[in-house]
Design goal:
This protein is of the alpha+beta class. The protein has helices at residues 61-74, 160-172, 230-240, and strands spanning 14-17, 45-51, 78-82, 101-109, 112-120, 140-145, 175-176, 184-186, 191-193, 196-200, 208-212, 223-227. The protein has a single domain, classed as Deoxyribonuclease I, Chain A (4-Layer Sandwich). Residues 114-223 form the Endonuclease/exonuclease/phosphatase domain.
């Protein structure tokens, strides 16, 4: 597992901060910078996640432009990308015995020290191992595509990795934000699944609003995670059944 505020933005899974519509190191805007600074202190923290499924050619970078335009319109401070398929880079592996790629950043937002982990695991027979056991504490956000299927987050079927992820989530006391909405469409099989997951520590649940957005030129749909203190009141109203 890797947890550092210094991120290689050209890795196969990237966490990038939006800065005036530019993602450093991805060929748009100023020159490459590998230090991800803390987001500005806004009323609402907005995090956009998406498996972009390749931006290694000029044609595929159209998807990146679409995603960045979306992030700019939404005023998202952080973008978490998976499966960029970029070359000439050092991949960040969680462990020598796993294909999981994981990156992390830590920043302070409204007096909270928040840790965001960006993860990707390709569809193969390798297990997730116990990498999630090393992610503990409060104010934790885990975003990504683990190719794990389970009804808990909206899949019609379940696979071994899905069962494994459910156990890791339960053991860690985490909460899956997914509401069952599909996040991935297979054009070959004409099916839709919820493959992209958003997992948080329970202390953040009252602050979070989660939604799947309209499609871009990818087989995965973007997901917006909003963290706002106003959500606490809405959460309590829902729990108490009051207006």
């Amino acid at each position: 597992m890797i947890f550092t505020p210094v991120i290689n933005l050209d890795a196969a899974s990237s966490v990038a901060q939006i800065n005036q519509g530019c993602v450093p190191g991805l060929g748009r805007g100023p020159g490459s910078k590998n230090i991800l600074q803390s987001p500005r202190v806004d009323k609402t923290l907005k995090i956009l996640q998406c498996n972009i499924n390749g931006i290694s050619t000029q044609a595929l970078r159209v998807k990146l432009d679409q995603l960045l335009d979306l992030a700019e319109r939404l005023s998202a401070q952080i973008v978490a990308l998976q499966e960029t398929k970029l070359r000439k880079t050092t991949l960040l592996k969680a462990d020598e015995d796993t294909d999981m790629e994981i990156q992390g950043i830590s920043f302070v937002w409204r007096d909270r020290s928040i840790k965001v982990f960006n993860v990707y695991h390709p569809p193969n027979n390798k297990q997730l191992q116990d990498n999630f056991n090393n992610i503990t504490g409060e104010n934790i956000i885990i975003l990504g595509d683990l190719n794990a299927k389970h009804p808990m987050w909206g899949c019609a079927t379940q696979n071994t990795r899905g069962n494994e992820l459910v156990n890791l989530v339960d053991d860690g006391g985490f909460i899956v934000l997914n509401d069952g909405s599909p996040t991935h469409s297979s054009y070959s099989y004409n099916t839709s699944e919820a493959l992209d997951v958003s997992i948080i520590s329970p202390d953040l649940q009252p602050l979070c609003n989660w939604s799947v957005l309209n499609n871009i030129d990818s087989d995965h749909r973007p997901i917006l995670l909003e963290i706002n203190r106003k959500q606490v009141l809405e959460f309590l109203q829902g729990k108490l059944g009051c207006l």
